[in-house]
Amino acid sequence: MELNGYHCAGEGCAEAEDEDTAGPELLRPAGGEPPCSSAAAGSGEKAMADGPAHRERRISNSTPARQRLDSLKKSRPPFPWFGMDIGGTLVKLVYFEPKDITAEEEQEEVESLKSIRHYLTSHTAYGKTGIRDVHLELPDLILWGRKGSLHFIRFPTQELPAFLQMGRDKHFSSLHTTLCATGGGAYKFEADFRTMADLQLLKLDELDCLIKGVLYIDSVVARGPPECYYYENPTHPENCQQKAYNLENPYPLLLVNIGSGVSILAVYSKDNYKRVTGTSLGGGTFLGLCCLLTGCSTFEEALEMASRGESTRVDKLVRDIYGGDYERFGLPGWAVASSFGNMMCKEKRDSVSKEDLARATLVTITNNIGSITRMCALNENIERVVFVGNFLRVNTLSMKLLAYALDYWSKGQLKALFLRHEGYFGAVGALLELLNSS
Amino acid sequence: MATPGGTNRASHSLDKSITLPPDEIFRNLENAKRFAIDIGINTRSDTQEADGEPLYEISVQEEITARLHFIKFENTYIETCLDFIKDHLVNTETKVIKATGVDKEDEMSCLIKGCNFVLKNIPHEAFVYAKHADSGFRFQNTRPDIFPYLLVNIGSGVSIVKVESEDKFERIGGSSIGGGTFWGLGALLTKTKRFDELLQLASKGQHTNVDMLVKDIYGGAYGSLGLTGDLIASSFGKSATADKEFSQEDMAKSLLHMISNDIGQLACLYARLHNLNRVYFGGFFIRGHPVTMHTITYSINFFTKGEVQALFLRHEGYLGAIGAFLKGAEEDNPNQYSWGENYAGSSGLMSVSPDLNPMQRARSGTFDMLEMDRLERQLVNLPLLQDPSSYIPDTVDLTEDALAREYWLYCFEEALDGVVKRAVASQKDQPEAAERAEKFRQKYRHKLQTLRHQPFAYGSLTVRSLLDTREHCLNEFNFPDPYSKLGVVLFTLCFLFLERPWLVDAYNQWVERLKGPPHKCALFFVDNKLLLRGTEVVLASNSGPALNDVTNSELQIVTERIAAMDPVIQTAVKEERLILVQSGSSSPCLDLSRLDKVLATVVRERGTDLVIIEGMGRAIHTNYYAMLSCESLKLAVIKNSWLAERLGGKIFSVVFKYEVPSKAQGLH
What we know:
- The complex is a heterodimer of chains A (438) and B (668).
- Chain A has 438 residues and is of the alpha+beta class.
- In chain A, the strands form three sheets. In chain A, strands 1, 2, 3, 4, 5, 6, 7 and 8 form an eight-stranded mixed β-sheet that branches. A seven-stranded mixed β-sheet of chain A has the order 10-9-17-16-11-12-13, sandwiched between helices.
- Chain A has helices at 14-19, 23-26, 44-50, 63-75, 103-108, 111-122, 160-169, 184-188, 190-197, 206-220, 283-294, 299-308, 318-322, 346-351, 354-380, 396-409, 425-432, and strands at 81-86, 90-98, 125-126, 130-132, 138-143, 146-156, 179-182, 201-204, 228-232, 241-244, 253-258, 262-269, 272-279, 316-317, 336-338, 384-388, 415-419.
- Mean pLDDT of chain A is 84; it is low at 1-60.
- With 668 residues, chain B is of the alpha/beta class.
- The model of chain B is unreliable at 1-31, 39-57, 88-97, 351-366, 485-496 and 528-534 (pLDDT under 50).
- In chain B, helix 6 (179-189) runs antiparallel to helix 10 (248-273), helix 16 (433-453) packs antiparallel against helix 17 (463-476) and helix 19 crosses helix 20.
- The interface between A and B is large, with 68 and 67 residues.
- Chain B: This is 4'-phosphopantetheine phosphatase.
């Protein structure tokens, strides 16, 4: 049976849907089933790649199109639509909330589904630690022929048991939905999902998902703040400002994902990429060291402290050793010669503040990522670098530092790009796989 | 270039000064004509630094014997040293005092100069560190061409330098995460404030309690990427989520891994970008610390999948001082000479495990010495070596072969009495010879004991190095030639008449060969025997005395006498068909990669097509497996029952090894 309609035989056709809001009326629900079995054309992959571009292919009740439509309706997964990325520190959850639900659909919607939808969309915080990043919400998004909002939710991986308990309480398993999950936790907690919440996970590779997610989000964000941006004049703090960047033809691209650890990928096309290297000095290291050094307990707290600190009291700079620039080797006096180098000395250890230590930790980790990234870019001969991952969330300090470091040390050759949905791309990529799951 | 390593013994070092009086340490300063003092970077830039007591390095060149002395010692000794200099040297105008660490621009070039120097002149200078191997060290052979290479100097920060030639180097990169980060962060995170105590702490810790591993995220390996479960995904990742106390040891270990991995990764990225596969690591973070050598080695192996090996240097701590000295001595052009490590005057590499032999380590921490002898001639490869880069002179590596090591150390200890006696006998006219001989006995016995515990102290341990060490110790106490009074005894090749079967018998093939066309020129490395026959003969003999081996000057005299008696030889000498050349060696053994340049020229000019190596030291202990590009004869009588047994024969077995290179090999 089919219910919510849809007139678009084109692939993805976000734009098409936008133009023709009559969509849902085209086909009427015929039965008392939940509004969840329609299908969109093509694969998720195609949806993101071809989406906005293919106006001419939209519509038509011509026979082949019709057939395709039917098949798509069949393959469209049932609601709810989730994508999950279970990382070492954070669980990232994206949820597509259909806004085009008809009265009939509403009526037919099973209680558990309604309850989940209501719970997620009516709150911005869940428990003590779950957060919905409202500012990232993508409204009026057309996904697989349905119009709705994409919500971005995160909570600490430690809280996963509570999440599973909630899933159980809300009878999530009765919906017989597939839960697409990526990140290491998809593997580590697969058994817990099964035993605690009776849920079956579709495990997906995190790097595949990451790239799919990046390309998709960049392609669908048309209004509001630009998804991709860079810092203009990164070496001049007073003139340094965000500028939109068009990522339409991004290849080759170095994609640096800074989560708990760091992965660096060279992306040559949408499905041709390799992991160049990675480093264990990532967001987890920043927070871990900050917790140990300052007694703070959250990322926000650590960042807040860092913003008030002065790293030059902790680090030994080139000018501390050479009195100024080290000209022979082209090292400016302000460059850090030894991170935490001043802390070898007792008096200096006694004179620094926790804020200074937090700032030095941030600068050390960030510069190191910048340095490894730059070497990879040189080795791979790639000039465009996109930084993603939750380490950059509300972390303008690090972003500007990365922009500065890349620009300065490459003499303007390398460009540091950032994406607004920083840490959610893996989860988005997982969601897009839902279409292939049935 | 301060060496915080070993500095925690500062408090103990005062009593050391009793057992090892400064007079002995600085004894060489008196005759010195040139100094180089290397004062550490941390000292200068951090005058209020209280935690680390940096090391000073002094290098001295003796006026007469052309020997370089490098001494490293803690600053508890600096006053003694300065007093000594003041008392003895201040009014001497010829002394030039060089100090690195003052002119910072010079520091790097001194380091590189020193590095080039040790790589060229000290056999087995570089080594690969393998924690789980028998000895921990795999020494590298000296290479004909040391360039290009990457030097990663890990001081408080990291400098990555590409060295392309003697005079051309470039700092291609670096990192601020270095030894200072380990020390600084370590001091903040733990109650331990000293660098090597932090290392000690780290060696006891479990990083997996602090780091987030791949398996902590995945529950196992991340198979599709080939990332194993034990890989660190996020350094200190657990301290961000787990609300508990972490042990100091665990945090120190995690810190050590984080920094070593990071440096290793950057080094690999730079090596790859510049297409270099020889990467040497140095700086105070490395300096003889097994813990850091291990973590760096691990990191390099991981990031390059074994394509690049992390190399370390035995004399890494001296590079700055050596370079400073070389800079100061530029008018003497020290690079035109070859130099050799004097085993008697050098203290050698410290123990692998800090706990294994604490005495030894305490000593090294207090001061360390390196002496280098300037050799009269420049040393080069024998042009007839099939593959100079893979040539290894020594037949058995005693560092690897524990059984053989036991035997030879025992053997040399047993023979010590005899050597002492002969030494005294060689200088009957000097009353204090007995006293000196006794000192020699003590010194050499101590060396043997050291080698028992640390066979790797001077590179790979071999019979050759044991013999050389003995020669050096004898020289040290003015016994340059304990055999001089014995006179030169000439033997004929009497073993040809020894009963067969021989252990290795290619005599018949050799006789067959003699029926063929005559050799153009034969190169004959002699020990105490002489053989003259047809064709042209180049007799290569030792430049300096060793054991009872004939030296070049002795051979000259002998040859003249024989020539007076034998018309064949007389003619040969006259027509220069028989010539005598120095080998450049003063060892009873023979290293074909370090031969007098003149000899190499003669060999090339005369189209030498036969090499005869003769005697136990030259043909058995060394060169038994040496592959030459021309015909060769290796002849010896095994005069040692243990060795004979090991080779499957009896004492006085004869080895007559005749080898002809295959056509293809012979061509180059």
